[in-house]
Amino acid sequence: MTTETVSSKPDTTKLWSFLFAVYIIWGSTYLGMKIATEIVPPFLLSAFRFLVAGTLMALISRTSEKQLPSRKQVLSAAFVGLMLIGIGNSCTALAVHYMPSGLVALIVAAIPVWFIGFDWAFFSKQRPTVMTATGIIVGLAGLFLLFNPFAATTMRSYPLWPIGILAGGCACWALGSLSVQRLAMPSPMQSAAIQMLVGAVFCFLVSAVTEPGAWDTLPHISTRTLLAYTYLVLIGSLVGFTSYSWLTRNAPPRLLSTYAYVNPVVALFLGWAIGHENLSSQALVACMIVIGGVVLMTLGKRKV
Fold first, then answer.
1. Considering the chain, what is the average pLDDT of its residues?
2. Which 8-state DSSP code applies to residue 15?
3. Whether 26 contacts 192, CB under 8 Å
4. Of 43-47, 58-62, 121-125, 152-156, which one has max mean pLDDT?
5. 264 and 102 in contact (C-beta within 8 Å)?
6. Which of 174, 178, 157, 156 has its CA nearest to residue 166?
7. Does the first or last residue of the chain, that is N or C, have fewer Cβ atoms within 10 Å of its Cβ?
8. How far apart are CA 174 and CA 282, in angstroms?
9. Lowest-pLDDT range, 41-55, 69-83, 197-211, 238-252?
10. In what residue span(s) does the EamA domain sit (predicted)?
């Protein structure tokens, strides 16, 4: 998706309305995934979520974007969808299933590390600034303090192995995102629809291999699970994406990037207030260190 140059200054009220939507909606989807995967396994949940959201987005795009994408554009969007939704988002759903949603959001908040590393190695070849490098070190130190594997495990109520899977998902998300501007992509809504549908197909395949008996859980879906699923489809995927898409074309990049360190704060609060997730004083300190590192990484980006 390319960023458009806007000739007139966007309406301030509209700008902050969309930004606030991304702050709250994307921050709340972590708890939504936590609740939705209480009964339905993560990959099957992601498959159904993006199958419905992608179908709705395709129907919307047919009324507003008349021109059909070329074969090359479809393949490009399919690749991005595989990386972002098929692998990136579903790995997040898997991690949230086993770990507190707020802590998963905090790990995802450190995704600029992957963006900076991949961009330096494979794309722009720009060396990170001193402030960016400092932010990376600070952020990683905070994560180590939070998940110190050498500390006593008696107080930890969740496993650490999903962190490796989540890290792989974050890496795929960053790689897919960085590839967008170098690929021939369809129009925004068509691209989103293709990405979601390809991600859904991938998740169905992974679920079939790794989640035996997953379909047997569907008759046991509770009202709580159904409400969380509906929220993820209609609010998380459709409203959240629409808001973010508008912001990429109208908001200053520095302002837009603030969602990376607001989302985990929202997720941590909702996980504590609604999900009854406990946070120790050490965990809170570690969270502040990680968010501080992300702020430094964001501020340290070179203007291009």
1. 85
2. H
3. no
4. 43-47
5. yes
6. 174
7. C
8. 29
9. 238-252
10. 18-147, 163-298
Q: How far apart are CA 21 and CA 158, in angstroms?
A: 30
Among the listed residues 199, 193, 143, the one whose alpha carbon sits nearest the alpha carbon of residue 169:
199
* Cα distance between residue 161 and residue 163, in whole Å: 5
What are the structure tokens assigned to 15, written together? 């700008």
Rg of the chain in Å (alpha carbons): 19
> What torsion do the CA atoms of 80, 83, 86, 89 make, to the nearest 10 degrees?
-110
Contact 204, 23 (CB under 8 A): no
SS3 131: helix
Give how far the C-alpha of residue 287 lies from the chain's centroid of Cα atoms, to the nearest Å.
18
In Å, how far from its chain's centre is CA 89? 6
Q: 189: which 2 tokens?
A: 């809504």
* 183-238 pLDDT tens trace: 888 888 898 899 999 999 999 999 999 999 999 999 999 999 999 999 999 999 88
**CA-based diameter of the chain, in Å?**
59
Report the amino acid identity of residue 287: C
Q: Has residue 270 got a pLDDT over 50?
A: yes
Q: Which two tokens stand for residue 276?
A: 């009854």
The yes-or-no verdict on residue 3 having pLDDT over 70 is: no
CA distances (Å), origin 117, targets 92, 120, 152, 175? 20, 5, 32, 10
Residue 187 phi, psi (nearest 5) = -65, 155
* Maximum average pLDDT range among 34-48, 101-115, 136-150: 34-48
Q: How far apart are CA 264 and CA 100, in angstroms?
A: 12
For tokens 């299933």, the residue is 97
